[in-house]
Write a structure and sequence with these properties.
- The longest helix is centred in the last third of the chain and has 56 residues.
- The N terminus is likely disordered.
- It is built from six helices and no strands.
- By secondary structure, it is an all-alpha fold.
């Protein structure tokens, strides 16, 4: 099977890139490191059926869009969790200051009421604010249940994000090596054409 002109396989381009790195490598350790990276990259490409530059670019695009989806799930969950936590905090505030509010309402004399209000102004203000924010009622158990579910989803989404991100980093590294090898081939081609028209 013939390769299309000027479209060598990714494995060949990677081998070219690491050959040129090895040519300039100072030590055996560096050469062994290069060989390990080359072997690992080629194994990954084989596993995922990535043979041409086009395959690689499509795979990178697909990873980017998967990462964007996971990120938007994480963002939405974070926003909802923040909302639930604030309701839980208002519910706690409501419960804490409700006895004071009841006590105020039990006072019949206006002057005594005013005095009580002045003495507990800050607590009562917090109670009224909590009551206003909880206009749809207090559903502590439901909120806690939803929060726990969101946290589980978040942990799973974050684990998925880390895997995708690590895969993308690996592929972008492969893409960098391949781009360098292609650019070296183009330079060689230009030099060859300048020096001679025959091969």
């Amino acid at each position: 099977k013939l390769d299309k002109p000027y479209s060598p396989s990714l494995a060949k381009l990677l081998a070219d890139y690491y050959d040129s790195r090895n040519a300039g490598a100072w030590s055996n350790k560096a050469k062994v490191g290069n060989l390990k990276r080359l072997t690992s990259a080629i194994a990954y490409l084989e596993e995922n059926g990535l043979h041409a530059l086009d395959d690689l670019e499509k795979h990178i695009d697909s990873l980017h869009s998967s990462i964007d989806k996971v990120k938007s799930t994480l963002d939405a969950n974070k926003k909802r969790s923040k909302e639930l936590r604030s309701w839980l905090s208002y519910a706690e505030q409501f419960k804490r200051f409700k006895p004071l509010y009841d006590e105020l309402n039990a006072i019949k004399w206006k002057s005594e009421r005013e005095q009580f209000k002045a003495g507990h102004e800050s607590e009562l203000r917090q109670f009224y604010m909590a009551r206003r924010r909880l206009s749809d009622g207090i559903h502590t158990a439901d909120w806690q249940h939803e929060l726990a579910t969101l946290e589980r989803e978040n942990n799973a989404a974050y684990a998925k994000y880390k895997v995708l991100h690590s895969e993308l980093t690996k592929l972008l590294d492969v893409k960098y090596c391949v781009d360098r090898a292609l650019s070296a081939r183009e330079d060689e081609g230009r030099e060859t054409r300048l020096l001679t028209n025959s091969f």
